[in-house]
């Protein structure tokens, strides 16, 4: 019986606070990353610049931090050092691919813009 009272009190307070939180919440507006153009080219540019690069950049930084963590925690153990070295190598390769694809996309974009009449 005592547990039932605690459970009901918890549920009632949870309901009250959830209603208060939603009633005083402000409207949040999100920018549409796909706005600003109606062609396939502008859609692809919006996807690359607005979604792929920011997410890829954050993941690259986290992967570099993780690789550094592996180096620090290896403490001279050869197998752990090899694992950390592989993680750092693959992170560097992935970051180079990400940045290289962005550079290639920008070169193609500039070339197409120069060829337009």
TrEMBL record:
Tell me the protein's name: TrbC/VIRB2 family protein
Pfam families reported for this sequence:
T4SS_pilin
Task: Look up the domain of life of the source.
Answer: Bacteria
UniProt keywords, alphabetically:
Membrane, Signal, Transmembrane, Transmembrane helix
> Where does the secretion signal sit in this chain?
1-27
Q: Which InterPro entries does the entry mention? A: T4SS_pilin (IPR043993)
Indicate whether Transmembrane appears among the record's keywords: yes
Does the UniProt entry include the keyword Metal-binding?
Answer: no
Record lineage: Bacteria, Candidatus Zambryskiibacteriota
Which ranges does the record mark as transmembrane? 43-66, 87-108
